[in-house]
Amino acid sequence: MTLDRAAGLTETARALAAGEVTSRALVELTLARIEATQGSLNAFRIVRAEAALAEADAADRELAAGTRKPLLGVPVAVKDDMDVAGEPTAFGCCGEFPPVAEDGEAVRRLRAAGAVIVGKTNTCEFGQWPFTEGPAFGATRNPWSTEHTPGGSSGGSAAAVAAGLVPAALGSDGAGSVRIPAAWTHLIGIKPQRGRVSTWPRGESFQGITVNGTLARTVADAALLLDAASGNHPQDPHRPPAVDASAALGRDPGRLRIALSLKPPFTAVPARLRPEVRTRIVELAERLAALGHTVEEADPPYGQIGLTFVPRATAGIAERVGEAPFPALLDRRTRDAARLGRLLGGAPLRAARRAEAVLHRRIGGFFTSYDVVLAPTTAAPPPRIGALLELSGFATDRAMIAACPYAWPWNVLGWPGVNVPAGFTADGLPVGAQLLGPADSEPLLIQVAAQLEAELRWFAKWPSPPVTARSAAV
Fold first, then answer.
1. What pLDDT, on the 0 to 100 scale, is given for residue 87?
2. Residues 6+ positions from 299 with CB-CB distance below 8 Å
3. Distance from C-alpha of 319 to C-alpha of 323, rounded to nearest angstrom
4. Which of 47, 170, 198, 436 could form a disulfide with 373 if both were Cys (CB 3.0 to 4.6 A apart)?
């Protein structure tokens, strides 16, 4: 048989288990697609060609022996903030980094599920911004329009999946860094409950606001990768009760009370929802109402939640800068954020961490009236390449908040959120919507996303093929 770029994670795993294709053939195809697009999309920082082929051969031997694992032989990618044994973890920074000795826990679990890690995808410096550009690797481009960013900071993973280079990828989300690029590349992006997917060798990443999540073209594929990557290292401080994301797909969520929240949460600078994005979100709300859900406009009681985000985010950057082997090569905005983080790293940080429990109670009370929040993922379509790259720190913050004011509160709360495609602007640029829930609500959010997917079939729409004819199928 042939497997083209439309074959997702679930279909690829099935074809491998059925003996319809070999892992080596799939990995060779994947490597050819990456090579063909690296000059145009630039999705990967590291391509593990030789190692991935060796792992594919080992997977084929296991398959031939009758071994079955959820992702045995399937090629996937991970973001370059995750440790892969034998590879450096530069996290978007300039300089030569030494290879790490061990896989991070999320990567270890993907390997235990049988996945072949074909490479590490590009991310901006320490994952700070909603664009994936920098002097360390250049600009990663959006498959839907190569003049625009795929978003950030998991922009390389999003570009790789959206272009069909890999069927799914891991990213990380500290202020929307899975959901924003998913929105801007027409993907499903799951930001799970804090601790669902381990960030070990860090028990917490960026003072607990950053979690690892999944990007895929379908809800089933994003859920399958989430199940494969989920679990904890023995020393993880956050260990939520296990959920079966894939099993949720077959269940009807029933009639839900859905809050349509269009007002941006607290921001220090103005943020306005663009009319072309608002229209797409309202259309999605109308679709949910047509499915039988009760949908009404209502905003969670965020209050001054932004005051709790800044100390955690900047203290996290200060920690990373303190470990950086080449601090002089870091972006000036990174160094400035680290200085602020050092100032806020004492009493303000402790107060911000304590405030989380208060926020859980207050915003948790909102979920006695509503089951799910539907909100824009971003306020604007993806900006052009270079639009934010050379700005000052303050100007970058203003532009970032104006474009992306909606995602970060759920990082403070540590609760799940799922981006779903919401359509396109008149210029053909993708935009997305978030389904947001309280603690451990991934199954419910996945059920709602699957309902929408069955109606809208967003996975059937693709960007123009960025791959060469010779690598189109096996």
1. 98
2. 259, 261, 262, 263
3. 7
4. 436
